[in-house]
Amino acid sequence: MDKEILNYTQNRELSWLKFNQRVLEEAQDTTVPILERMKFVAIFTSNLDEFFMIRVGSLFDMAHTDANNRDSRSGMTPKEQLDKIFEAVAPLYKERDKTYAELKKQLQPYGICGLNFKDLEQNEKKYVKKYFKDQILPVLSPQIVDAIHPFPHLLNKEVYVTASLRFKEKSNVKNMMGIVSIPPFMSEILQLPGHDVRYIRMEKVIMEFLGLVFSRYEVSDANYICVTRNADIAPDDEALEISDDFRYLMKETLHKRRRMAVVRLEVAEKLKPDMEAYFCEKFNIEPTQIFRTKVPMKMNFVFGINGKLPESMKRSLEYRPFTPQNSPHVQDSNVMRQVKRKDILLFYPYESMDPFLKMIKEASVDPNVVTIKITIYRLAKKARLVEYLCAAAENGKDVTVLIELRARFDEQNNIDWSERMEEAGCRVIYGFEDYKVHSKICLITYRNRNEIQYITQIGTGNYNEKTAAMYTDLSLMTANPAIGKDAAEFFKNMSISNLNGSYDHIIVSPTSLKQKVLYLIDEEIRKGEKGRIIMKMNSLTDVDFISKISEASKAGVRVDLIVRGICCILPGVQGYTENVRVMSIVGRYLEHARIFSFGAGASQKVYIGSADMMTRNTEKRVEVACPILDENIKRQINHYLKVMLNDNVKARVLQSDGTFVKKKVTGNSIDSQRIFMQEAVHAKREAPPKEKPISELIKKVLLFTKNG
Asked: What global pTM score does this model have?
């Protein structure tokens, strides 16, 4: 391990927790509508769940198998990292509880009330009791735990109501435990009759009527709990060998995930010492892994509240609705013909994904199209893209879909879609045994006067029609023959399991992407103080990349990094990273685009792609990045970067001690996401954005706002 790097790096897990803290800060931001703030509490909660399932789960595995392994960015062992994580998470729970309670209070005047049973009106109590007897009690499966009945297996992230039980007629018999699972088909909340959104959570209803569930017993110490299990399991961890049908292996993997070790226990009420010791023994955990929460353990219901509100109230409680706009660079006519004439860049979610989908639909019926090839990592539950690919196959096109079945938590969805596409006649392949295919690339091959030509799409985000309206991503569509030739070579290599392909323009991990990025940084290093690097990504952990950025800083190169989540490099450290600035934008949309810019002016080189600068992306995944060769699109991307770098509303700046601070607003407020929304809405009236002073952009946004 290079000890010098420890001077300007930080632990990735602790950095991630600081990212999630920034999410929680959005829930505390009074300029954000109240119901949107409650959604940020739910997002924070969901993020933390996944963090424990994957990252904490992984560290527990390492603590047992490689206890002396030291993290290359912090020098800590797995056990030391776990101790620091539990120490950092505890105050976040308290902060979340406080934020949630305040938001509940603020929602009450709007008639949105999450209630305890004692808070219900008399007629509501009668309604809940009748509903419990008629609808809930008949489908419950209560269990007791004693010498004869063993402690049951509790499923990951399911809520269970627990209590101490004692026979009414046998007072000398030792207490036993009662456990009631909440059926997964049951709603998280019970909404009460009336015009307001008054509700009580299902676990509270069951807890109130435990006396009816366990009618032979005296019930005491009622509580509800939820376990989080290690979900960091991959097919290569399995003893099973790859079979002819990789789907079978993935189904076995998903089954095993349900029974992995417990890494966290959440409880609603403080546990008595004997009960704490009991759960620690049953789950093989330490007291530091038990967290009390006053926030619901499952918060999906929050995203459904708006559907129960009148339109007038939604305007007060939610963001103003925004629909992804038609790109000003795409006309209503045939998209394939337009791409043949000029490169087109789409900017989600400000611009719609529809032109890309329309292009695939056109290709599915175009008599000149011979093949459509695409890599898929995540899809929506409903996907027009799949419909068009299936239609293309049914129309006699050669359709090849490389689908990644190991997209974490989307495995079952991808299994289902792979079966659907295979049935339609698509050729479905699964990539590599040890490398996830995370690239976002699509190739349309067509004949033009007996000459083979290409249209290539390369993006930074998934072909997911739902997240394309929620995540910021770039999607390039080009008929450049050199890019198309590389894409054709890429798909040929993927189909024969060749990771070592050679390409002239696109860069591909695990073979050339990292090396090319390091080479481009070296080019800027040779320029010294005239060097310029701007990169936008989701996370930054790769040690080689971090070392090279430090080298660039020492040479005087000005480096700006826009990193949404984990960032293991510390900027502004004397002698190492004085010329590095790191910022993070957390706002209405999830920042997801990856952009890599080297140099300035005529010599500037810009790439977009699917990879973050994380070792897993650069060395253990198949990723693709593409150069931007069209000068107009390069100007578009420079405009996006300039606006983001000047954001002083949703941006936080990373300090050399690892903390984030908001920028001080000295002039006009600049919310980059808001600016992009306004530009998208008004784009039809204006030419494509060029390099403009940021002050000019602000004047426009202020004018747009004034005019509604």
From this structure: 0.91
